[in-house]
Design brief:
It contains 2 helices and 57 strands. The chain starts with a helix and ends with a strand. Among the domains are: 146 residues, Jelly Rolls (Sandwich); 143 residues, Immunoglobulin-like; 87 residues, Immunoglobulin-like. It is an all-beta fold and 734 residues long. Strands 1, 2, 34, 35, 36, 37, 38, 39 and 40 form a 9-stranded antiparallel sheet that branches. It has a 6-stranded antiparallel sheet with strand order 4-3-30-29-28-27. Strands 18-19-20-21-24 form a 5-stranded mixed sheet, with no helix packed on it.
């Protein structure tokens, strides 16, 4: 721990102001996506990305189980709860609770309270429905052949509705336990139920994400065939619309259930007659709507969960969607629904007009059940662990927003912090910050320090470090709440040295044409302009991103092209200096200054032949004052400069008819090739006497066949060196 603290201290000292870059940066927390990344306690966030005081969730009863699966109101401020891995049903009255059923099965996935005072509970994996009478006695009430029972509901006539899995059925059970099958689907599971007007029932399924309207036993109408894999919950609205919570994709089975093959591939097996199918499917790439529409995040990721409104006339509208939160439960509330989610334990109010508010956040991260508690209040059951919580209607007097951690990239000093919004009379907003040099706040971080904010603006007083976190506390008065729309913080990175990571030496004579030519003539990329025709070198202004596009390749003798890759950790604009030196010479000589693109073409005819190295130095001077700018450099591999052509001497070998000997020399580079042409015929390559072209002096011999008619033969010789320099000669063979 001491070593870690010492490292944090060293990093903080390394970020002293004298080493900082000149350009400040700003961290802005704005929009639903950014604000939802933080932690909200007793705050609400609406679809317009406004933070206000919200509701405070209070604990009612600890179920002492890992999973709370289902919750139903039993009247008179009483509720029944089904739990899992212990197969218990609890009855909660006020803050007191007692076990009213201890089933042999492990899970109670569904509960319902009848109008006659009976309580029903569905157990799995060997599906059965138990009835708990008013006197506390219990017995098996309905035992279908299905393995899972996922949902229970009471219809308008007081009859029990049962949704099952493995066969995907819906039953209706009378008070005497007699049953009838309302629906046998092609789906593997029916996960949720909602009674409608009269005898109408709505059901949601998996794994194809279908919502059925059941008008009579054996007669169903598909009102939604979605691109999601599960319909987790449905409620019926007063105007005849159905609101459905959908999650997952087409390959995801229900949680805790192994996927089963779809019977659709085996032909019809259902006994129900589906009178029609309403072909309104959501495409797989349904977009996540932005704030002000129907989504809780503005990312481009496809939604993993959504709340859909299916109008009585068949129109389908996305009220809310999320790529992170998964809706598990619904409760009709006002002109919309309460939505309990998983993964992040949020409770939303989603309205019929596609506006929404995040009402509360709970620490158990799965809100699996919701039930009304009168006067706008609601009860929640959670999983991981299982608890019963109360969501009141009253607004909290105090709430906090804790931001995600901001990585400044390097040790930085902090500037001003501000919040934007409004604060009615008597309310206030306090801002605090803390900093550290570990990505996750721990004991090495500094304490929370309040910023002295006046008129929404104040100075951050936390120690210089790499990471920063912000906490905003909202305090209300007389029912009024302050409102935050954005928080921004300024920081200044410690200036870090730029890096030239690679230097490429291109082949001799290889140049590249500029993508766009101003003059209309081909222009070479990276070549210094003629001072008589151009007013300056590279005209790209400092600060322009160095993006070099290599277009058509050309050959131009005497030129050598170099390109390089450079980065600046602070994202500062870079300018380059290029120098050169000959091997064996310690002095670096200037080649080009003020280069703003990472490429240079050098006319090497101005230097003697020999072997050279170039050095590219990157400077962040455009974005820093002279005293604070830094440089980094890299040297190239050595390369040959040879602009002089080889020399050759040709002679006839005495005593050998038609035999030619050629002596070739080059002052700068090795000989590459010798070719000859007889009487303007095709070129033929000759190998040296020692068998390999590997030195600056080579001897060649070859025999010219005699002419078919009288007269000498004209032999033209062509020799080239490794850098492409060419020389020619002639010899007459009698």
């Amino acid at each position: 721990m001491k070593r870690r603290l010492a490292l944090a201290t060293a990093l903080a000292l390394a970020g002293a102001p004298r080493g900082h870059a000149a350009a400040p940066q700003f961290w802005r927390l704005e929009g639903t996506s950014a604000l939802l990344e933080g932690e909200l306690a007793s705050l609400s966030l609406d679809s317009e990305a406004r933070l206000r005081l919200g509701r405070t969730v209070t604990a009612v009863f600890d179920l002492e189980a890992p999973n709370g699966w289902a919750l139903a109101s039993a009247g008179d401020d009483a509720f029944v709860v089904g739990t899992g891995n212990d197969g218990l049903v609890h009855r909660i009255e006020g803050s007191e609770g007692r076990v009213v059923l201890d089933a042999a099965e492990l899970e109670v996935h569904a509960v319902a309270a009848g109008q006659d005072g009976r309580t029903y509970a569905a157990t799995s994996p060997e599906g059965a429905v138990w009835v708990i009478e008013k006197d506390g006695s219990s017995r098996v009430f309905f035992d279908p052949p299905d393995k899972y029972i996922w949902a229970l509901a009471i219809d308008r006539a007081g009859r029990l509705l049962v949704a099952t899995g493995d066969e995907g059925r819906v039953y209706r059970v009378g008070g005497d336990g007699t049953s009838e099958t309302l629906l046998e689907t092609y789906e593997t599971h029916v996960l949720c139920l909602a009674p409608g007007e009269g005898d109408r029932v709505f059901a949601g399924s998996s794994p194809e994400g279908v919502v059925y309207r059941i008008d009579a036993p054996g007669h169903a109408f598909v009102i939604l065939d979605s691109a999601f894999s599960e319909v987790k919950a449905i409620v019926a609205a007063e105007d005849g619309a159905v609101i459905a919570a959908v999650v997952g994709d087409q390959t995801s089975p229900p949680a805790g259930v192994s996927p089963a093959p779809s019977p659709r591939a085996e032909g019809p097996v259902a006994q129900v007659t589906v009178t029609e199918t309403f072909a309104m499917s959501l495409p797989a790439d349904t977009p996540v709507l932005t704030a002000g529409g129907a989504s809780d995040d503005t990312s481009s990721a496809s939604p993993r969960g959504a709340v859909l409104r299916i109008a009585q006339g068949g129109g389908i509208e996305t009220l809310w969607s999320s790529s992170q939160d998964l809706p598990h439960s619904l409760l009709r509330s006002g002109q919309g629904v309460l939505v309990g989610t998983g993964s992040r334990g949020n409770v939303y109010q989603v309205n019929d007009d596609s506006t929404w508010s995040l009402l509360a956040h709970v620490e158990p991260l799965q809100v699996t059940g919701l039930a009304g508690a009168g006067e706008g209040r609601a009860m929640l059951v959670t999983s991981n662990p299982a608890r019963v919580l109360a969501l009141p209607t009253a607004t909290a007097r105090r709430g906090t927003f804790t931001s995600p951690v901001r990585d400044a990239g390097t040790v930085s000093s902090w500037g001003q912090i501000r919040w934007e919004g409004g604060a009615p009379k008597g309310t206030q907003v306090r801002l605090e910050t803390r900093s550290g040099n570990t990505a996750t706040p721990d004991s090495t971080w500094g304490e929370w320090i309040e910023a002295q904010v006046a008129s929404g603006l104040g100075a951050i007083r936390s120690e210089s470090a790499r990471f920063l976190q912000v906490r905003a506390t909202l305090e209300g008065a007389d029912g009024a709440s302050p409102e935050i729309e954005a928080i921004s913080a300024a920081f200044l990175q410690r200036n870090r040295r730029p890096e030239v990571s690679a230097v490429t030496v291109h082949a001799p004579g290889e140049v590249f044409q500029k993508p766009i030519s101003v003059s209309g003539e081909p222009e070479i990329l990276g070549l210094a302009p003629d001072p008589l025709t151009e007013s300056g070198a590279d005209r790209t202004p400092p600060g322009t991103p160095s993006v070099t596009t290599f277009s058509r390749k050309m050959q131009q003798r005497g030129l050598r092209t170099f390109s390089w890759t450079a980065q600046d950790p602070n994202s500062d604009a870079l300018v380059y200096q290029v120098q050169y030196r000959a091997l064996g010479d310690d002095r670096w000589r200037p080649l080009r200054q003020g280069v703003t693109e990472p490429v240079l073409a050098w006319d090497t005819s101005a230097v003697p032949d020999g072997r050279y190295v170039i050095r590219v130095t990157a400077s962040d001077a455009p974005d820093n004052p002279p005293a604070l700018s830094l440089t980094g450099h890299r040297d190239s591999r050595s390369f040959e400069v040879d602009n002089a052509p080889p020399s050759l001497e040709a002679s006839l070998v005495r005593g050998q008819r038609g035999r030619v000997r050629v002596q070739v020399k080059d002052a700068g580079s090795a000989i590459r090739r010798l070719e000859f042409s007889v009487d303007a015929g095709r070129w033929q390559e000759v190998h040296p006497v020692d068998g390999i072209n590997d030195s600056r002096e080579e001897t060649y011999e070859f025999t010219v066949p005699p002419a078919e008619s009288a007269g000498s033969r004209v032999v033209v010789l062509r020799v080239s060196d490794l850098l492409g320099n060419v020389a020619t000669g002639r010899v007459d063979v009698p």
